[in-house]
């Protein structure tokens, strides 16, 4: 019995025309923030803030950095700046490594005898490749 394997499972569905839901949400959020900035901020501040908000929304919706969505880069940026970055180095004394060499110890070497070779070849021939 054959089953159909789903393909393209890592591609998001297009919900709003050519946009996915996430892209639409980023663009709608950027447009909403731009509208609020124009409505409630003085004009001089809005002139600088609105292009930045729209550019950020466009980057979130469409830009990919290292084949990942831009939101992962923003998340890494925020995590890096939220963490402590004070690293202290404490010198540790090296640990002693004790090695002993036994001079009279017998050394075992792996040898392949003819009977072992025949057993190995027989077991390789017997295995069913359909399993």
Description of the molecule:
- The chain has 131 residues and is mainly alpha-helical.
- Helices cover 50% and strands 7% of the residues.
- Helix 1 (21-40) packs antiparallel against helix 2.
- It is elongated.
- The model has no long low-confidence stretch (mean pLDDT 84).
Percent range for β-strand residues:
5-15%
Strand tally, please?
4
Gyration radius (Cα, Å) is: 32 Å
Q: CA-to-CA gap between the ends?
A: 17 Å
Spans of at least 5 consecutive residues whose pLDDT stays below 50 are none
Which structural class is indicated by helix and strand composition?
mainly alpha
The residue-averaged pLDDT reads 84
Helical residue percent band: 40-55%
Q: Enumerate the strands of the largest sheet in spatial order, edge to edge or round the barrel.
A: 1-2
Query: Counting H and I runs of at least 4 residues, what is the number of helices?
Result: 4
User: Biggest sheet, open or closed, and with what strands and sense?
Assistant: 2 strands, antiparallel
Rough outline: elongated
Order of helices and strands: EEHHEEHH
């Amino acid at each position: 019995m054959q089953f159909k394997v789903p393909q393209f499972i890592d591609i998001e569905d297009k919900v709003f025309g050519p946009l996915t839901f996430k892209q639409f949400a980023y663009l709608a959020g950027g447009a909403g923030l731009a509208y609020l900035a124009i409505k409630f901020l003085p004009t001089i501040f809005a002139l600088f803030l609105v292009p930045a908000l729209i550019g950020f929304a466009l980057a979130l919706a469409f830009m990919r950095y290292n084949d990942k969505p831009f939101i992962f880069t923003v998340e890494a940026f925020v995590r890096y700046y939220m963490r402590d970055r004070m690293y202290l180095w404490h010198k540790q004394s090296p640990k002693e490594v004790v090695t002993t060499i036994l001079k009279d110890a017998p050394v075992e070497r792996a040898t392949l005898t003819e009977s072992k070779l025949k057993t190995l070849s027989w077991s390789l021939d017997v295995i069913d490749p359909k399993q």
